[in-house]
Structure formats: structure tokens, C-alpha cells
Amino acid sequence: MEAQNAKFKDPWGFSKWDSFNGCPAKFKYTFIEKRKEGNASSPAMERGSKMHDNIESYLNGWAKDLIKDNEGFREAFDALKLKDYHAEQAMGIDKDWNHLPDWFDKRTWLRVKMDAYFVEDNKGTAIDFKSGKYRVPSVEQVELYAIALHAKIPTLTEVTAEFWYLDTGEIYDRTYTPEQLLQLRKKYEGYATRMYNEVLFTPSPSNGCRWCAFSKTKGGPCKY
Predict the structure, then answer these.
(1) CA distance 157 to 187
(2) Which of 21, 43, 106, 107 could form a disulfide with 94 if both were Cys (CB 3.0 to 4.6 A apart)?
(3) Structural domain range at position 152
(4) CATH classification of the domain holding 103
(5) Residue 1 placed within a domain
(6) Is pLDDT above 80 for 4?
(7) Which letter, b or e, does each residue of 186-198 get, where b requires 16 or more Cβ atoms within 10 Å of its Cβ?
């Protein structure tokens, strides 16, 4: 097991920041001490994974048809296929916000994975496919999608992050200028500094503790 005051050293991304921001202790158990949470899968997660796999196969021409759960977005997927789109983009970015060949590069500092993106008239659009009920996505996830696409293609004059809610037929979108995205980088440099410099990893008790695999009631290492 890691030493008590071990620090986080791996590349970060939205899910890691979200975990750290929600409960630093759980972040430590998961991403520093590498403890297992048991079976983290669920019917909803398995369904979402199946939907994503089908969309990727359909967009790339590996599958000729969509499964029933994805039918509501057929027109949008067909329109996307007509664009110069790129599916399943796992982007690695270094500390100077340079886009790297892949996110396993040893210089990788930030990892962002988007389901698709395309560019038209020097305007980029990053897309994430979501299953389940509609909810406004995290501001951090939206901003990181836009920042990452701009880092990959710095000549873009506008970047839009879109979230397609497959079950409800709704789309959330937010558009940024290059100036806004360059300014937002400072925000995430600050977030990363907090994660990499943290040594206490103090628990943040909440109602979620009752389901946490690391909670005291489940025999975990946390005091709550």
C-alpha cells in the first residue's frame, strides 16, 4: 500500500477531478492506493456501453444498423457520417497544452476522451453521447472538451461542446471563443495543482457514503 503522505502523480482528466472534488479520500483510495471498488458495473452502465459501441460501429461503417436504443438519433448520426468527423478520440495533452500523439505518451498531463468531433469552416465541435435521463452536464466536462479540441487544433476560430442525450432526444451545447479557452486553461492548471499537491485527502462525508465501497459501514478504510 502507498505511504500515508503519497501524492497523486498520474495524468488526470475530468473523472479524476470530479472524484477529487467530490471526496479527496475516495480519490486517494481509487487513484493513488489503487484499491478496487468491487463490481462497479451495473445494468445502466452495461446498457450505456452497448449503446456507445453500437454508435462507434455505425459511424465507422462496421455495423449497418443502429440498435433500438439509438434509433432516436439516426438522423443526427447519418448527418454526422457526411461530415469529416473523427470518432472515439482519446487525447493526451502535456503541461504546456500541446496535443500529443496519443494519451499514453510519457509527457501526458491531461487526458480527454470525446466520442466524436468534426470541423467545418474552421469551427470545431466536440460531441459526447449520453444515455439515461437529461441533466445539464458538469461545467468542467464541457469546458475540458472544448479546451482539448482547441489544443489539438489551435487554428479553430470557435469551439462548441455538444452532449447528445440518446434517451430523451435532447442536445446540450456551449460555444467558446479561442480567447475564452486560453483564459480557461488557468482554471484547470489551478485544479491540477490542487490535486498534485494534496497530501491530506480529507474525507467529504455525504449521503453518498452509504454506497461507497470504502466506507466504514462496508468494511472500508474510511472513518465515515
Answers:
(1) 21
(2) 107
(3) 14-216
(4) 3.90.320
(5) no
(6) no
(7) eebeebbeebeeb
Q: How many domains does the chain have?
A: 1
Render pLDDT for 119-166 as a digit per residue (tens, 0 to 9): 999 999 999 999 999 999 999 999 999 999 999 999 999 999 999 999
Predicted local distance difference test score (pLDDT) of residue 38 = 65
Residue 9 counted as domain residue? no
DSSP letter for each residue of the chain: ---TT----S-B-HHHHHHHHH-HHHHIIIIIS----S----HHHHHHHHHHHHHHHHHTTS-SS--GGGGGGHHHHHHHHTS-EEEEEEEEE-TT-PBPSSTTSTT--EEEEEEEEEEETTEEEEEEEE-SS--PPPHHHHHHHHHHHHHH-TT-SEEEEEEEETTTTEEEEEEE-HHHHHHHHHHHHHHHHHHHH---------GGGGG-TTSGGGT-SS--
Residue 73 included in any domain: yes
9: its cell numbers = 502523480
